[in-house]
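Hi L., both proteins are below.
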Amino acid sequence: KTQPSTTKFEEVPETLSSDGAVDEAISGSNFIVNCLDEGQLALIYRLNRSCLRTRTPWITVAASGLEVVVGPTVYPGETACYMCYRMRLVAGEESPEARYDFESFLDRRRTDDSTHRANLVTGPGVAAQIAVTDIVKQVGGLGQPTTRGRLQVFDHLRGEQPPARSPRLFAHECQGVHPLGLGQGVAAGTSGAGVP
């Protein structure tokens, strides 16, 4: 039995300079697709907070150099949030201090640098193909997205997609949101093992 489609795409061209503006922009949405450049990390963090407050699932899609990164798809109250993911990136680096400095730079930058980044011309297309599969699963109720709380990375140089990676670190953003009280009073940097 075919159900009528109620899917609607809406671009938000306005500058979203506060949490309230982001809340208003995503109001009524059932699923969000984030394609913002890393130079707009402060806005991505606002989106993370808004989606946590409204319990709206969302996915991040990026093409960067020789890699395409799709995910994590964040399900507030069920998976680690975007801040968890970014903290995990910092913690997993060979030099966490240098990565933290770079993250801080991006947070202050507040500029779309996507036109200045080197990408393979095929990168955005590959990113879209990987993402649309999970978006259709989510919106159409066709199963659990592969990127649920995980990353899908495609490496153009090697022509391969390594196994999905999962952030399992809880950030302060998740307090009171994760199931079973996980994240409530959990200090940043502690493990959230057992939660997808």
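That was the first. Here is the second:
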Amino acid sequence: ELLLESFVHRFSEVQPRRALMIKKIVVTSLVGILAGCGGGSSSGTGADTAKTPKEQVVALETSGAIPKLDRGNTLVGTDANANGVRDDVEAILTSNYTSKIQLAAAMQTAKAMQNALTVDTTDIPAVKVVDREISRGINCIYSKFDGANNSKQPAQVAQELEAITANTKQRLLAYLQFNKALDGTSSALPEGDTCE
């Protein structure tokens, strides 16, 4: 918990909105990891036996309770159309956002977040370019999602994009490394229309 607070404190000075999103992702990931360590017991037999975390995820995906995501061992996953967004993420966004404007905003941000997983974190100028791409994407989301007419709140959209992008341990660690590379840097919030 102290490590989490230290991590969040570093980012809260520079990017308060992102610090909250990062904290939620880290907490969600830690809960998932802890759930995988056990903690429950099953008193039944046969069909009532406890499922592994992987089996639980598959069951939730099959039931439609959570989206089906690529959980492979690569950072980039499958991107058959080479648009910079993993195919599974694109499928979720396409099904969730019927408004072309909102879909475009979500896709722009998803592409930027995907870039955060593969950028060379020792190349600080490159890291800052990706950070600006993410900031521009999130700014676009805030201009296209207002929570009205049954649309989601912009912060919820951004948090969901982070969660589905960094959906494996390897991807989460890469995303955290990207954010760590930004430690000690500063950035400005984008102004104007940042939608592509």
